[in-house]
Amino acid sequence: MGIRGLTTYIANRSDYFLECHELQNCYLVIDGWSLSSQIYCKLSKANCAFGGDYDHFSYSITQFFEDLLRCQVTPIVLLDGGWENKKKKTVFKRARDRLLTASKFTPTTQCRLRYFPLMQTDVFRDVLVTLGIKFAMCPFEADDCIAAVGKILGAPILSYDSDFYIYGVEYIPFTTLSSSIIKNKSGYAKKCKIYRVQKLLDKFRGLDVSVLPLASILLGNDYINRSIFKDFFSRMKLKKSKTQNGQQKRIGTTLNWLRNYSLNSAVAAVLRKVRYDKRKSILTAMELIINSYSILTPYMMQPLGLTDNSAIEKIRMTPFQFQGDLDKLDEVLDKIQAEGTIQEDNEENDDNDENNDENNDENNDEETGETDEEVDKEIDDENENEPKFSTAEKFASSVPEWFIKSHLAGDFPTYFINMLTHNLYILVPQIEDFGKISSHEISIPIITRIFSLLSSSRGEDSVLQLVIREGNQFARRFITVARSPVSFEHLREIPSGERKKIIDEVLGMSGEELEELEECPEQWRLYLGTMIFWMRREVPPEKNNIHLNCLVISMLFSIIDEKIGFRRSKKTFERKFSKEMERIAMERKQRRILAEDCCLGEAIESVEKDDCIVAAAFFIDYFQMDEKLKVLSRKFCIDVVHPFVQFQSCLRHSMHLNALLGHPYHHTRPGELLNGTLLYNLFVSLSKRKDPLVYLQGRLANAPGLLRIFQSIYRIVQNCLGDIKQHMNGPKRRRNKTHRRKKRETVKDQFLTAESGSEKTSEFYDPKNSFALLNTASGLQGCL
Q1: Residues 476-524 pLDDT 10s
Q2: 336 close to 265: Cβ distance less than 8 angstroms
Q3: Residue 476 in contact with residue 465, Cβ under 8 Å?
Q4: Residue 202: is its pLDDT beyond 80?
């Protein structure tokens, strides 16, 4: 939910509210999606403009958790699930904000903006699984579960959400956590700052922790718009300040007011200023929100393997229910008049204001521009359209046991819940060409198959509402989806082979094509099957041989990383491997290297570390963004990005269909296979080549193990596709000035610093040049 402005309020007084802390030898409860976003924005060196550098992101997540484990910190990660109806407005607003950002995003804006790639959450989960980190996904919002687990374990919470300032838990804002570790007497630790709610209670003497959820309601959260309480605030005098905006002043004033009341009396005082005909609906919403903060349900403990019943009992509380008559609020307040006497203002006076602007701040409300009628309609709509499943417990009882177990284990994406509860799927755009149809259009056959399985228990055809980009705005599309003959309840009871056929049917794979894929390692089969589906789909723009070459060649970096580690910096690569490059160059110059035909499995087994060092020297420049793109947006070609983000949409949804069916295909890990910057640079470079396939084979001539893999994968995909459309190079512009041509001939390729720029490789070999190996022709005849 979040309290608007509270994070800033605390940060401006951090010397008082936040204490220095060394994190070690403890549990740490983590707000998963918040951490994922912060790692992507603050720690990952991924480029956003090319669709997602998932390898960079995966590496950053791995480093973060390995540092925690080194400090003997046991992380427990909880993830948000679907969204409840009361948050619908916020969800749509965020989607529209992302749409606007994506429409204007270029490499030049990357320095001040970040855009989360499509499979960010999938990659985050994959790393948790790989490292064996305990995690679980809540049916809906996870904040109350995070607070409950934190209280039960007596553990601090890591997030960047202002809600945790009022839950009564120990809270570490992510921005205070050091990116490095230190050594102390107890071992290794991470420096950070920690917040304890007692600091807030001490600052506002008389304030009780039970009234803090009401502060979130009054100050505005995702569920109740603060403008509903404008009459209440109009009776309050805001503090004078030159430096604080209206919301900052309201926070101090509201907390100061609440210290005079119990929760029940404060609710009565607030409701008295709400229009009479709206009091009941507002009270219902207030009780729901207050209890979401105070009634911490421990049902997520079992999926995490934590079942200390004595600790769980400590956090059980009686739900808040307003005591009083809504028709006689004045009488309620008269009974507690002494309790409501305003005490001396204990909030510090930061500044003297130049003029008395309390009323102006209230009238110029920056959070909302809605009229009373619009707010009233919103409340009515939310109550009338409450989803079928309004609580986690009710939802869990409405779906098959196998589904809720897999969901709690984090096997499914969050939109599965939204499909089940709202028949709705918001397809947030990627960094794509807004002049073309949505990059998700290509995936609709997979999406509708997912929905048909999820809705099959309804006994009739169902309507899925897709919110999808059309031009520069969202459009609603209602698709009638035929009921699946396979029952949702009994989906996991049918044989694995039958479940696999559902995926094969959607991807259009059968017969000889499936036999071809059988030659591939299990972890690549779904990836390649999706690649074939993507190439075949007649959704603009048309895909060609260069698109295919780029995706196939980029699969090799997962093998390279496994052999020589994660290497993306040219400088550190040369420092680490320059001597080995000289040795390899000498050895392979003296003997002819042949890329013999063999099956793909044998080719993978035969890859040597030396092959990976040679190939890494070729790849490494492609991982870097051309510096010119950061200052000249006109040089950025969004046309190149669009087909690859279409592929991402296909891959993501085929992965999720596979998960729903219980993984009849081995799980695909995007963090090991996809780097948007690499794909963009490869496409631009290969577009200049007369024959891209020959060019790539030549570049891998001295890495025969990897060359065999590339040739085998390409052959498999080509056999499945048949004829592949060839990319047509446009006529080159003739230069008028000879001296410019000569100058250009001496400049290295725009993206590659270790290539000649020609299909022909040089016969000259310099053993002192560690990259000379890439320019030798030995072995080329054996691989063509």
Answers
A1: 999 999 999 999 999 999 999 999 999 999 999 998 899 999 999 999 9
A2: yes
A3: yes
A4: yes
pTM of the model: 0.86
Query: Per-residue pLDDT for 163 more than 80?
Result: yes
- Specify the DSSP class assigned to residue 722: -
| Total count of domains within the chain | 4
* Residue 264 sits in the same domain as residue 213: yes
- Would you tell me the crossing angle of helices 676-686 and 638-660 to the nearest 10 degrees? 130
In-domain check, residue 578: yes
For the chain, the straight-line distance linking the first and the last C-alpha, in angstroms and rounded, comes to: 60
Tokens 């050091």 belong to 178
Nearest to 127 by CA among 29, 35, 46, 48: 35
Distance CA 428, CA 430 (A): 7
- Kindly state the average pLDDT of the residues 756-777: 41
Cβ(535)–Cβ(548) under 8 Å? Answer: yes
Closest by Cα among 106, 111, 135 to 121: 135
Looking at the structure, do residues 571 and 426 belong to the same domain, yes or no?
A: no
Which structural domain, as residue segments, surrounds residue 89?
1-203
337 and 456 assigned to the same domain: no
Residue type, 760: K
Rounded CA separation 406/488 (Å): 14
Is there a domain that residue 177 lies in? Answer: yes
Query: Residue type at 348?
Result: E
CA distance linking residue 536 with residue 520, whole number of Å: 20
Report residue 216 as tokens. Answer: 């979130």
| Per-residue pLDDT tens over the stretch 78-132 | 999 998 877 888 899 999 999 999 999 999 998 888 999 999 999 999 999 999 9
| Joined tokens for residue 241 | 């300040």
Domain end call among 203, 223, 250: 203
Residue 66 · residue 9 · CB < 8 Å = no
- Over 90: is that where the pLDDT of 738 sits? no
